[in-house]
Design goal:
Structural class: alpha+beta
Largest sheet: 4 strands, antiparallel
Number of strands: 6
Radius of gyration: 16 Å
Order of helices and strands: HEEHEEHEEHHH
Number of helices: 6
Distance between the termini: 27 Å
Strand content: 5-15%
Shape: globular
């Protein structure tokens, strides 16, 4: 598997989780893009199966990517409902890449998350759902990695994933 294939799997999976509604304030995120624009990403991403050493669990717990809604409520995107075979492929790839790149799990997961976010935000901007436009104006930037964290990027030889052009 390549990084581009992993990113495509994550992107397709996360796109399928929307629309999503904040259980606290009722804000509706019609698309993954709306969610990215109108929520504040939290660090770090994690995968419970990898944390527990259960990479090939028959019923994976999955991973979480958390963010704060503008109301302050914590929202989570979970991979728990991802097909098991796909989860196992992704986890195996992540394990291999952690070793090859000399990274910790959270560093690689956050890198992948950032890449999906960049792809989504690089696409042409469709009309934003009502209530989201004002959220985009107050969106603080993504937090920086903790001091001393290594710079994460594609490994030598991997090609960057091109942004689709409209």
């Amino acid at each position: 598997m390549t990084e581009a294939e992993i990113l495509r799997m994550f992107r397709e999976f996360y796109d399928g989780l929307f629309p999503k509604v904040c259980p606290n304030c009722g804000r509706r995120f019609e698309t993954l893009r709306d969610y990215i624009v109108a929520s504040q990403r939290l660090w770090p991403s994690l995968n419970y199966d990898m944390e527990l050493g259960a990479d090939k669990a028959p019923r994976p717990i999955g991973g979480l990517a958390m963010a704060n809604c503008l109301c302050g409520s914590t929202l989570a995107l979970s991979t728990r409902s991802m097909p098991v075979s796909q989860t196992h492929l992704i986890v195996a790839w992540i394990r291999t890449e952690m070793e090859r790149r000399g990274l910790k799990q959270a560093e690689l997961l956050d890198y992948l998350r950032d890449e999906v976010r960049r792809q989504v935000l690089a696409e042409s901007t469709p009309e934003v759902a009502p209530g989201i436009r004002e959220a985009a104006c107050v969106q603080p930037p993504d937090p920086a990695p903790s001091p001393g964290a290594p710079e994460v990027g594609p490994p030598p030889g991997d090609q960057p994933v091109p942004s689709p052009r409209s």
